[in-house]
Amino acid sequence: MDLHNLTRDQLIGDVISLVTGSCFVMFGLAALVIASIRRRAEGVRVIFLLGIWTILYGSQRFNYNSFLQALEPHWMIAGARCLRAATDYLVLVAAFLTFRELTLGFMRKLLALMAITAFVIFILGFSKYLLTGSQGWLLSYNEVLATLGLAVLLPFLASPRLQRKYGVLHDRGVLLVGYAIFGCEALLVHLLRPFGYQLYSVIDDFGFAAFIIAIAYVAMKSVYSSERRLSSIENELAIARQLQFSILPTSTPETRNLRVAAIYEPMTAVAGDFYEFLPVDDSRVGFLVADVSGHGVPAALIASMIKVAAQSIIGYADDPSALLRRLGEILSDLRGQFVSAAYLWIDTEKRVARYSAAGHPPLLFWCAACAQMNRIESNGPLFGTPCHPEFPTQEFSFTAGDRFLLYTDGLSEPENANGEAFGDQQIERIVRKNKSRSASELSLLLLNDVRTWSPASTQQQDDITFLIVDAL
Known about the structure:
472 residues; alpha+beta; Rhopdopsin 7-helix transmembrane proteins; Phosphatase 2c, domain 1; five-stranded antiparallel sheet; 56% helix
């Protein structure tokens, strides 16, 4: 096309198309930037899809701009025509996908079906263009599908009952106004076209602009609402985290000939792991470790229940079997949750330890005299199982230099890049290598080794809790 052949009216129309098309593309790019910044926010996908839709619509104003076509170099002509052929079809796919994000249930499935239909039309129409050069072969079907989509959206937006049932919209009235402007403009275009009348493209652009601004307003309000809700939840979780840490011991027990170190690393803001000290006097103390199945608030609530229960059964501190049996009775109604627990009783005067557990990993006992790690297993069933619980107790003696390690499975189960669990062998290696270090030093080394065992990109998969008790 030659620039000299363009009339004054054509040039004015082309300039207007360039301005409006640029505005739509800039609006779409801004939407994509906002979506990338707030990519973790709920409902942000509709802003991303709205950006794609608006960019495709704006590019249509460039595709059929006579001024730009006259300036196209020859090497760009084929590519530009392919872009025009694809854009004409894909703009409807983006439109249906955008509205799909604002709906639920049947409406969501219907709009997904329309998007798939529009995509099939694109595949067929674009393939026809690539094979024969025939552009716009199925565009009439696209227009029928677009009209059907507008007809489907009308009762959805107009009826509060349908919107409550199938929509996730805020300020439905704003979207309805935008739809009305766009719908009236589209209807007027379709009514006048058979009589040879064609409205200026700027009127089309005004109707579309009103529509996308309404959608953007509704989408952004939904995102901000979800962010406020998320912020409120995070604040509540922060309070819950503080409360949960407040139920844990603030210091280790002052017991003669014992040194204790405790590590508590929750996976989430609140966790299901728990530990407690049950001191009787300065030479006798009990150590309780528990692990609630699952994570988050439900597990944390049960951990709080264990705290209260532990204080009420301190009278059984010297009898691990009786203590766990009584604890199981208190936790009998966990409503589908399960709890594993381990209890170690140490008498430093008699140099005797007693151990019992409920479905928990074994107690690791480092014997300094024989320089070996012993796995002490004395398990009954998990709390929360329907069977009648029996918790056998194992009693053994210890001497100065021996070391006890109570832990939850979050310590032994982390996997490395090859899928290998950290396991008891790694724990034994670290304990053996650092047998001369204090309990507090060893606890930090062990935690660091567990963290470095898993790939840096892998998030912590479970709560990590363990107690190290050294006999002096």
